[in-house]
Write a structure and sequence with these properties.
The protein is mostly helical. The chain is built from 5 helices and no strands. It has helices at 2-24, 26-60, 66-83, 87-97, 99-116. Helix 2 runs parallel beside helix 4 (87-97). The protein starts with a helix and ends with a helix.
């Protein structure tokens, strides 16, 4: 499955690059890619600092920072997708950055793993 993603995603990205580049030009395409990477870095950095402070606050109160850990995992995935050059990965990265998408993915993952556990 992961092997297929490493083949399919670059094919999607290349076809999007060609389509957009032929419509708006190569320099505009590169400018958009760099802009989304910079915006993504800014958002991930800001959110990461907030998560870190929230986790420290919870730990100082003796509370396990489970929400912050979950948020950190999604932030890592989002950040990796946002700094990867491409429109498709940027769309997925920005989507994963959103709380409702994170909650949906977490719910689906929990449901998947619970169905795999046999007592």
């Amino acid at each position: 499955m992961i092997f297929l993603l490493f083949i399919i995603i670059p094919i999607i990205e290349i076809s999007i690059f060609i389509t957009i580049g032929s419509n708006i030009g190569i320099l505009n395409t590169i400018a958009i890619i760099l802009t989304t990477a910079l915006v993504g870095i800014f958002l991930v950095r800001r959110q990461g600092i907030k998560l870190l402070f929230d986790a420290q606050k919870n730990l100082s109160q003796g509370i396990m920072p489970t929400k912050e850990i979950k948020g950190g995992i999604f932030l890592l995935i989002s950040g990796l997708l946002l700094i990867t050059p491409g429109f498709f990965t940027d769309c997925i990265g920005f989507a994963v950055f959103l709380k409702p998408v994170q909650n949906f993915i977490a719910f689906q993952a929990k449901k998947y793993f619970q169905s795999r556990i046999h007592y």
